[in-house]
């Protein structure tokens, strides 16, 4: 999903476009994910979570190969949009699979393990894409994504068959589930929080690569990919989120996350590279913790049509990423890094305010379902 972030300076030079235009390489994928996620949720509720995951991984190989041969930024974005239509088949269905197939006593641990996996994948995608592009070309980075999708297909086939799944194929039941979700204040709050969380993360990392490619840093794509090693902190942070969520609940976890992110974003305003990296690390850790809190809140706020609920959340979540991919680039071009820092600090602070106000009921209190 985010592997091209380390390639943005290279793609900007290759296609002779500015910060706002090159950000669409990420934005095309996240926009498609925002559009497709609710429909994938309905599909997973009807056909089964495991089946949707397996087929999504298999089909993801095709747009990755198409991206390798893209002659223009427009055609590259078309391939990236196709990837975005398929990625929710993995993420939305897996979230619902965990919620229904994992016993309540282990659900928090499973969710945080899932987030840990996405964190590790987020680092490896950015780092390896930058490394491969530095040695070969940006085309080779998309060959790597095709191989990763193929490996995902093989692993998905090892998932146990569903034991607690009940198909929902009646359109009236789908409409009823959608209506219930849209009348659920806790779920709608979580969607808003998710929108703001990913707006912060994508706005930060899309423009970070462009900043570090300029003077006085002038980092290569491999060096910029190495900066994303801060993502590895999430491998430590997110497993700790399960016990913390069980003890304190999503509201407290979100406020803690917002505080860490705001402190880190302030630190990125410093000039020395070590301080910038330290600030980015703190901001990223806050985002990882807030994502765990939001995923927990989604499953605790609903009792049925879980794939659809997760799809609605992902639609809002990746909608924030799509908007940030364009807006943050424009702000960077007009106001530099200080403008971007102010933008993402505002979005993260607003996420905290929305969560505190909206997670006052079932989604915001501790419960046995989150005990590790």
From TrEMBL:
Keywords: Cell membrane, Membrane, Transmembrane, Transmembrane helix, Transport. It is a multi-pass membrane protein. Coiled coil: none annotated. The chain crosses the membrane at residues 20-40, 52-72, 78-99, 111-132, 138-159, 186-205, 225-246, 253-271, 277-298, 310-331, 337-359. GO terms for molecular function: transmembrane transporter activity. It comes from the Bacteria. Belongs to the major facilitator superfamily. This is Major facilitator superfamily transporter.
